[in-house]
Amino acid sequence: MRNWIGAGIAAAVLAVPAGPARAWDHFAHMEVAAVAFKDLTPATRRNVARLLKINPRYTNWIVGAKRGDEDRTAFMRASTWADSIKLDPRYTSDPPSAATAGQNVGYADRSRHADWHFVDQPISPDRTPVVPARVPNAATQLPLFRAALADPRAGDDLKSYDLVWLLHLVGDVHQPLHCVSRYDAADRQGDRGGNAVRIMGNTPPPVCDDPRFCPFGPPTELHAFYDDILGAGYAVGPPQQAAERLPRPDPKLAAVTDEKVWIQEGLELARSAVYVPPIGVGDGPFAITPEYQKAAIDLARRRVALAGARLARILNETLGK
């Protein structure tokens, strides 16, 4: 563990189990939320705070928060909820073929919905046959959540549930490896967003306060490398500080609220910036160079900043009245 965590934060960490791969680390999700929170209108902040209090984890989210800062702290930690339920024994896994797989019913839903976190758009560098992205996925669920949040007839339980999922999935689809699966001779079933691609030679995350991961060294899979590239942990201070140092996104790009465009961006970035040397065809292991790692950090910072700006715009549109 690289940094000391106060007793209150440590309790919160233990209360929220970490999820497996296929998502930004908690750190980057909270960084996205920190970017978004500062751009929320007062009315949006009030509605968001009211809805987050319905979530059963709310009391855990505000552990250690300073007086008057509970709303921001809860908002940042709420962005990790969709990952935290992956290892919660009260939730179960359902296959994409299940009748429950694409439902949107609120907190009565006890499914983990692992397939909602990504869209496996297929690519192949060697003409290996590909399989279309299975549904449901992030592209099918994001419109449902946005519609419910904007619907005055939808109940608060559903809106709260959809809000925490939206906070998470907007971040997810701005991680390029959430938008692609590469098919080649080594991975005829797809590499699952780089989860099957092994790497070495990379350095640990620059911030790491999560005792469950940090002692094991840097990630050894390409997907996990991008998940943790900006940091790993559950304390709110470091991602808040990191968010304040992010570049401001292009206003025209920040105004794009069509999730189909975001997901296409991710696919193109996977082609042009992720699956590039030293990452070759196959499962590796590939040796990460300092130049590749620096470029990955720069890419992640731009995508987090853009995700936060777009998230704020959507929430102001749906919950700002």
Describe the structure.
- This protein is an all-alpha fold.
- The protein has a single domain, classed as P1 Nuclease (Orthogonal Bundle).
- It has helices spanning 7-15, 26-37, 42-52, 58-61, 70-78, 81-84, 138-150, 156-172, 222-227, 237-244, 251-254, 259-274, 290-319; strands at 122-123, 181-182, 199-200, 286-287.
- Helix 2 (26-37) crosses helix 5 (70-78), helix 2 (26-37) packs across helix 13 and helix 7 runs parallel beside helix 13 (290-319).
- The chain is globular, with a radius of gyration of 19 Å.
Lay out the secondary structure:
Elements: H1 7-15, H2 26-37, H3 42-52, H4 58-61, H5 70-78, H6 81-84, E1 122-123, H7 138-150, H8 156-172, E2 181-182, E3 199-200, H9 222-227, H10 237-244, H11 251-254, H12 259-274, E4 286-287, H13 290-319
Helix pairs in contact: 2-5, 2-8, 2-10, 2-13, 3-5, 3-13, 7-8, 7-13, 8-13
CATH architecture: Orthogonal Bundle
Shape descriptor: globular
* Rg over C-alpha atoms, rounded to the nearest angstrom: 19 Å
Q: Which CATH class? A: Mainly Alpha
Largest β-sheet summary: 2 strands, parallel
By DSSP (H or I, 4+ residues per run), the number of helices equals 13
What percentage of the residues does DSSP assign to strands (E)?
Answer: under 5%
Class by SSE composition: mainly alpha
Quaternary state of this entry equals single chain
By CATH's scheme, which homologous superfamily applies?
Answer: P1 Nuclease
Number of strands: 4
Mean pLDDT: 91
Q: Helix-strand pattern, N to C? A: HHHHHHEHHEEHHHHEH
Q: Report the uncertain regions.
A: 1-22
Biggest sheet: strand arrangement = 1-2
| Integer count of domains | 1
Percent of residues in helices comes to 40-55%
Distance between the termini: 43 Å
The third-level CATH topology is P1 Nuclease
